[in-house]
């Protein structure tokens, strides 16, 4: 694989407005997954990472200086935003993605694969020179873990890569906008315009990143990794950190923290004026919900609290509901790779918001989709489509 790292590069968008000559890449409307076959006509706009993943499965993670062989190898598209929008497209949404690749074989592969799944790539920026982003992923079959080694694309995306008219066109008709926290300068410009147009925003808060605070301040919904809430708020526990996030972010309707095989926790703000006399500590409330889990259930479930005033010691109180979602219990023989499981979860949440699913159905649905994706090598191999029998109970 030969990569060119040139310091002089011209960037163009697929829908124009650049001083350089333009390239137009076919959008998903010309692919086999055309918008006419979409289940929901909601337009979803995403901005973030779209990369190539080189996935190497190994019997066990190597020690320093080891030489080992792969048990299998796969090259496919990756990146948080690319994976999440692929998931949303397979479930029936009409997603558009803003990202940047180079005019190399990897970049062309990224575009082709997204288009084949029904993701509109016409707002991608394509650098004439440089390299597309890529990630080496080592999948440890013994420990059921994956290790990612990422090489960013060059030149990086900047706000000037997109004209104001391109941003307006990308947002036209969008009912929801999603950011994975990458490309933060460009993402902020898009998020500010989405806010001006009153379009809801979902943020993937995987970890603390440069520029993420500015994005989170505009968020309507946040889905975060297990470590993020406490790292961001410095709260003593995850539940109290979720309360802190809702208090700090007045626009936020809900926050979800994903916990891998332990499922997820969601805190939803109740904005309607209602008289609530009862107040309960958030950590005690979580414990009471955890005790209601049916440990013998294999399929994902959701346990919810009643609407109440929820208090975090030393932080404050909100009115809302707390939810505990369980993960699918996947037989060890079927669990192949957890790469992209969080992206699949988010893609499902994006779909659920557009479909107006209640949390009691959204959380098990997202867990079911994420679990299905763990049954193949790579983030997209086993991502289900909406016709998958495992999803039928959630989509009736």
Automatic annotation (TrEMBL):
Keywords tagged on the record: Kinase, Transferase
Keyword Secreted: no
The keyword Transferase belongs to this UniProt entry's keyword annotation: yes
Molecular-function annotations in GO: kinase activity
Residue ranges occupied by any Carbohydrate kinase PfkB domain in the UniProt entry: 47-271, 327-384
Gene3D superfamilies in UniProt: 3.40.1190.20
Coiled-coil boundaries: none
Matches recorded under CDD domains: ribokinase_group_B (cd01945)
Pfam families per UniProt: PfkB
InterPro entries per record: Ketohexokinase-related, PfkB_dom, Ribo/fructo_kinase, Ribokinase-like
Name used for this protein in its record: Carbohydrate kinase PfkB domain-containing protein
């Amino acid at each position: 694989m030969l990569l060119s790292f040139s310091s002089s590069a011209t960037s163009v968008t697929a829908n124009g407005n650049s001083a350089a000559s333009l390239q137009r890449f076919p959008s998903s409307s010309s692919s086999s997954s055309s918008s006419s076959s979409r289940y929901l006509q909601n337009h979803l706009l995403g901005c973030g990472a779209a990369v190539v993943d080189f996935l190497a499965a190994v019997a066990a993670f190597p020690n320093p200086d080891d030489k080992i062989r792969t048990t299998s190898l796969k090259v496919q598209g990756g990146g948080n935003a690319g994976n999440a929008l692929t998931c949303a497209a397979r479930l029936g949404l009409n997603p558009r993605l803003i990202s940047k690749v180079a005019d190399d074989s990897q970049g062309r592969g990224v575009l082709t694969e997204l288009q084949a799944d029904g993701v509109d790539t016409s707002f991608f920026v394509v650098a004439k020179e440089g390299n597309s982003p890529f990630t080496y992923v080592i999948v440890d079959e013994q420990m059921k873990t994956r290790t990612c080694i990422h090489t960013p694309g060059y030149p990086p995306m900047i706000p000037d890569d997109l004209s104001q008219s391109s941003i307006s066109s990308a947002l036209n008709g969008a009912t929801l906008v999603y950011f994975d926290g990458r490309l933060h300068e460009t993402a902020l410009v898009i998020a500010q315009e989405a806010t001006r147009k009153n379009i809801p925003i979902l943020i993937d808060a995987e970890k603390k990143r440069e520029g993420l605070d500015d994005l989170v301040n505009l968020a309507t919904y946040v889905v975060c990794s297990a470590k993020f809430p406490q790292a961001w708020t410095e709260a003593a526990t995850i539940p109290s950190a979720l309360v802190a996030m809702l208090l700090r972010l007045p626009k936020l309707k809900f926050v979800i923290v994903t916990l891998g095989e332990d499922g997820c926790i969601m805190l939803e703000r109740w904005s309607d004026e209602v008289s609530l006399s009862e107040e309960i500590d958030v950590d005690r409330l979580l414990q009471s919900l955890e005790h209601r889990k049916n440990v013998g259930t294999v399929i994902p479930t959701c346990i919810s609290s009643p609407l109440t005033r929820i208090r975090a010691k030393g932080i404050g109180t909100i009115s809302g509901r707390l939810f505990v979602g369980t993960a699918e219990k996947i037989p060890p023989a079927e669990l192949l790779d957890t790469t992209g499981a969080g992206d699949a979860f988010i893609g499902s949440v994006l779909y659920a918001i557009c479909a107006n699913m209640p949390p009691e159905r959204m959380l098990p649905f997202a867990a079911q989709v994420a679990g299905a994706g763990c049954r193949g090598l790579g983030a997209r191999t086993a991502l289900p489509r909406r016709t998958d029998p495992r999803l039928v109970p959630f989509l009736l």
